[in-house]
Amino acid sequence: MIRQLVSGVLALSLVTAPPSDARALVPQVSTTVVINEILLKGQFGETDEFLELRNVSSVPVDLTGFTLRFYSSNCITTATVTLPQDTVVQPANSLGQYVVVTGLNFAGEIDDQTYVVPVLDSNDLMPTKGGAVSLHNLHGSRVDTVGWTPCLKEGGPARIPPQGLSLSRNHLSRDTDNNRTDFTSTPQTPGAQPAV
What we know:
5% helix
């Protein structure tokens, strides 16, 4: 098994934007890459967190330069993470189909470590009291969004999970653009599919 740890400097910017920035783009069901799982708060606090992207298509997808935008509960952009060079996720159900972005104090084990992107200069990227995260392509168009707050979500907001559990899509990574039904609380499985 080939394991590669993506290294390099991540572009992390703390910016403030008006609430309308978060709602400007109309979401579409993603058929390529989805935000598959997020852990808002692990056993070691707010920065023991991760976000998992998964390629749900049948072809490799180059995510080089794509951005993850993190939002507060009132839809203000709090951080932007740019995915590093050579982040080419492989087709669904193959090694390299995931990208796992980890918080400063992430303490879990990652199953598929092909693309691990540590964010070492961050505060709490995904606050448990409410927030959202969206994946944007090179043109700034929104690819996928998960909101656990009413201000930015697809359909209804996802239910906030108990501490230590993550918000996960089902084993097929189905995207219906309704966070309330697409995500459930599950044991964390970074770099692997949940059993639900």
